[in-house]
Records
---
Amino acid sequence: MRKRILLAAALLGPAPALAHVVAAPGEAKAGSYAAIAFRVGHGCGADDATVRLRVEIPDGVASARPQPKTGWTIAIEKSDEADPARRRATAVTWTGRLPDDQFDDFSLLMKLPAQAGDLVFPVVQTCEAGESQWTEIADPARPGQKLTHPAPVVRLTPAAPVDDMAGMPGMKH
């Protein structure tokens, strides 16, 4: 019976989450450094290759550093703080070419906010002949709401209480 269910699932095609730009992993510890990949599962339409991916960085993310990709250029938009040391990345754009029949991950190493909750990353996927704006945000007052172009979300879970001495060799109390 289990084999039939797996076969039926395979025949039905990819899961709906693969049809969107999604964050992987979709969960991280609040206040941590985490590498989050924005997975592009397809182009904007049939035979419409992705040529640009722009990821907006939410307020509260202290730093965001993109992972380089062979064949792609990267542009980092920064906040307009007067003090250059206080400027932070507000968006990252990769430009290159990803054929519609392939997928890829576009990764950022980020210092996440200390507060638990959902971080929403609006993404614009530009293709050779079209564009998909993955920017819709779920309304908490409407659970189960179906979105056609949902923004990727990373759920921040509470950080475990820190025992300042636990990580120091020879320090017991």
Note: The CA atoms of residues 30 and 159 lie 5 Å apart.
---
Amino acid sequence: MDNLNNPAIKIDNQAGLIKNGLYIESPNQDSRPNNELPGLVVVHGISLPPNQFGGEGITQLFTNSLDPKGHPYYEKIHHLKVSAHALIRRDGQIIQYVPFHKRAWHAGVSEFEGRERCNDYSIGIELEGTDTTEYTESQYKALADLIKALWQAYPSLKDKKVVGHCHIAPGRKTDPGESFVWNALNRLLETKA
């Protein structure tokens, strides 16, 4: 069973995984320094190949199995060692790659409220999309449901700080982009489950 169309996302705190969720382990993870607890959620946007949806490119990138001959763009990025904690597909399906208590390699050079190295203390959630393509209703709902579950599972997220990659790496990153409607997410986050 996966979490598609499952409004009651539950997280196994000990494993750091979505219960009954789809988990594909990324090797691109490590322990958070000093057993730091997550205190920030970072929303990203990604499509592989660029501007195409539904393929396996994202999972292949996060598992170091991207074929450089699979697409001209892949030649430029196949060597990267990156990951996110989770990906939300266009239909709302969530795929998890890194346990939430571990450090995923999603933020790169970053800073939030004067503190650098956001990977150390954040949870990275990728949305399958682009800066200029509207995200789907299913994605907003799944994102809100996942964030609410994270708030429940990790009291360290009590300040409910949710930002975009663009906010922690301005000038270097633009995602989730102008197509992401923050008010739509905020409305869903304010709604009781």
Note: The chain has a mean pLDDT of 94.
